[in-house]
Specification:
The protein is mostly helical. The protein has two domains: 111 residues, RNA polymerase sigma factor, region 2, helix turn helix motif (Rna Polymerase Sigma Factor, Chain: A, Orthogonal Bundle), CATH 1.10.1740; 161 residues, no CATH class. The protein contains 15 helices and two strands. Strands 1-2 form a two-stranded antiparallel ribbon. Helix 1 packs across helix 2 and helix 4 crosses helix 9. The longest helix is centred in the N-terminal third of the chain and has 23 residues. It is globular, with a radius of gyration of 20 Å.
């Protein structure tokens, strides 16, 4: 269940799991982590454009949540409380985004203009469809990294996860009106860039993913044997959120938002993960009274 949905609920409420964890229930700790790790990780991945750094950021955030569980007083929902911790950690973290991307829209546009374009046949496009989607997802990741960290986080939560404005504003600790303004500004910057550069949004633009794939493969920007974003085991954001809200009235807005929601969403994680650090550590076991 998408935690940014207004109808967010689960078989066992988060507050119940927290109470059980605080009396030493290891199973409840595992359930709480499993519920929120995928969402936190996928936000971190889109914030940084780097799956390894995103894993570290996720682990650090979850450890902060766990370490502060005893301070959760139920004055807000657990979702709001926990994702405020995530927000603060993400915005204050000093990890650098992936260096394969530009720092701003102007530089990204220049990079796209300077990169070679090689037209390929429909048959070749079919043969290289996985690599072409990889190029598209890399480019979309690069666009997100041109936003400020706050804009990035608001856009990921608000548009890619389709969060209700009240939920988003509570997590960001700003008024709903201010949240909408910040989200609108992030949308406008992405919209303007894609409208002027992306051939998928505006057919008048010459930039096409299939025309960039040959150069991307030749220069090692895409490794056909080890795709970073486009793997068979990944889902998409669209598959884990509720149906679209009806606020996208402009066709180009609908297109670019849909492209971002088609970005890869990692759903599965290694069975032995950082949770084992807690479960196997005497200090953490004593601190959480795990049994």
């Amino acid at each position: 269940m998408n935690p940014f949905s207004t109808s967010y609920s689960s078989e066992t409420p988060d507050s119940t799991l927290v109470g059980e964890i605080l009396v030493g229930n290891k199973k409840s700790l595992n359930l709480l982590i499993q519920k929120h790790q995928p969402f936190i990780y996928n936000i971190a991945w889109k914030m940084l454009g780097d799956p390894i750094k995103a894993q570290d950021l996720t682990q650090e955030s979850l450890l902060k949540i766990i370490a502060n569980l005893s301070s959760f007083k139920g004055e807000s929902s657990f979702r709001t409380w926990a994702y405020r911790i995530v927000r603060n950690h993400f915005l204050n973290d000093q990890k650098k985004p992936s260096n394969m991307f530009a720092d701003n829209f102007e530089d990204l546009g220049n990079m796209l203009d300077a990169s070679g374009s090689v037209d390929i046949s429909l048959e070749e496009q079919e043969l290289k469809k996985e690599e072409i989607r990889e190029v598209r997802l890399q480019c979309l990741s690069g666009m997100l990294l041109c936003l400020t960290k706050e804009q990035r986080l608001i856009y990921i939560i608000g548009d890619i996860f389709n969060a209700d404005h009240n939920v988003g504003s509570e997590i960001m600790e700003i008024s709903p009106d201010n949240y909408r303004k910040k989200l609108s500004n992030a949308r406008r910057q992405l919209h303007n860039f894609m409208l002027n550069k992306c051939g998928l949004v505006n057919k008048a633009n010459p930039c096409r993913c299939h025309k960039k794939v040959t150069v991307a493969l030749e220069h090692g920007m895409v490794n056909a044997k080890d795709l970073l974003f486009n793997r068979k085991e990944y889902a998409t954001f669209q598959e884990v959120i509720e149906p679209d809200a009806n606020y996208l009235v402009d066709e180009s807005e609908r297109l670019y938002t849909q492209l971002h929601r088609d970005h890869s969403y990692k759903t599965t994680f290694e069975k032995k993960n950082f949770l084992d650090v807690i479960l196997e550590s005497p200090n953490w076991r004593e601190r959480l009274n795990l049994n």
